Give the backbone structure.
Amino acid sequence: MDDDTSDFGSFYEADNEDETNTIINMSYKVLVPVKRVIDYAVKIRVRPDKTGVETANVKMSVNPFDEIAVEEAIRMKEAGFASEVVAVSLGPKTVQETIRNSIAMGADKGIHIETGTADLQPLGVAKVLKKLAETEKPNLIILGKQAIDDDANQTAQMLAGLLNWPQATFASKIEVDKANNSVKVTREIDGGLETLSMKMPAIISCDLRLNEPRYAKLQNIMKSKKAELKVQTPQDLGVDISNKIKTISVEEPAKRSGGIKVDSVDQIVQNLKKHALI
Amino acid sequence: MFRFVNKLNHINSSLLINNGIRYYSSKCLVVAEHDNKDLLSSTLNTITAANKLGSDVLLLVAGNNCKSVVDKATKIKGVKTVFHADHPLLEHGLAETLSPVVVGLKERQQLTHIFTPATNFGKNFIPRVAALLDVGAVSDITSIKSDDTFTHPIYAGNAIATVKSEDAVKIGTIRTTAFEKAPVEGGSAAVEQLDWIAPLVDQAASSTNIKWEGSQVIKSERPELTGARVVVSGGRGMKSGENFKMLEELADTMGGAVGASRAAVDSGFVSNDLQVGQTGKVVAPELYIAVGISGAIQHLAGMKDSKVIVAINKDAEAPIFQVADVGLVGDLFKVVPELTEAIKKAK
């Protein structure tokens, strides 16, 4: 374990852990996990052998909720709260694109956890992030509330549980109170909104309405391509990412039978009557 | 073919077990969603899902001064025991304080399953519980194939995954629209007070330093969106929040609820708790009327299991018409008031 932390130390020379803990106004670090997923606009296709969804030659993008998380972290930096934003992604080498996208938006550096083609599930991801939280010592970890591929909505909550940190999920507003080392979060709940306050370090997951992510400038995109990424494996971190939930099959949902187009309101009413709805 | 045979064998063996001695090896804890006065109906759907396991169903009511909820819970058909955990810090269902209570119950009761509704309440705390128990979780379960095999939608409902959990305790959230509500009468569950919870809850609150500051709950006379028989939803085509009054009138004519697309919420027409879709609420009413909604993948994810879908849109090419049972191409500002009047007359 010591080897791992010293690796981090040499890579991130500017990082000073003592400062983070003692000087309130300095060196607040925000860790933002980002996931590479099939682009939200793509109509997905289930593989004929039912093992999953076709991902070859399909447009991939950053999970939309994660872009919101990155944007929020960058705004914290611009507001003088955060001093450093670290983007991290797990997966094969292709996820480096996703990390570079975050850097192009304004993240300071990236960590790639190389997992090859392993079936990543929220618990394994949360375990890796927990290790990174211990070495990187962020004050806040901001995640998307769910990935639009597995739709699990679990990673932030699991990470909070593993770290025993407070959590505010489905955030639509975040206010940092530096003086009290706390953060106030407005959450989207089923009946409306709810406000929590938490001491940092804390976990936040973002809802859609938190902000509108910026587009990266071309110049920053070019710069991000050269950014050096820290690459590690779960083994380096001593984390077992295997999981006990096995996918048996993936199938297409039942198709709706084709409907009809009508020309008048009366015909709508007739149809509703036919279905005994009025 | 091979896979098919295997599947049959599996079904047979589980039937044998169930047909032999009444075999209660499994215990499913349902964590109730409530407001300290009443149970929310999402809990009833979850109890039905739990009963599909053929196991003992145990219900946890954790809250503050929530005895009236416990009293109602004991009458629900299909519940064996109601666990009552009362503590001021459990009032708002915070994940930090609720999770240790659930974990404590798991240790004391040898639970095999833990289910809760896939509402924002359930989604918020159940993964935290799973992590504390070092097990995975299955989100948004839509069917229960056996005690370890479940289906759930992925990719905004465009694929259905069947998963098998090999974890010692199976944890999941239940998509409420996929299961009927358990009857609120006919049961006679025992009540067990959980007197051991106070130190766990206090400790969790102090170690995480979480504070509930307040809430803004939007009040409505209309039925609750996820349980409504009829839902009338508006999209960007509504042009303003003011125009949603038209949809409210149509909804009221049919005793329905009003929903919205993300575009309508983002444009500030209505509050975000009305959003139907992949990242909002999932509804499956008998009738869904989509007005001025194009029908993006993300919106369809939240409503395409509705029994009958009616679409009103001026764009004949809008994707919503591909899932609509009845579609009318036309100007919603003309069609909707006409439809409201026509339905009033037809009744």
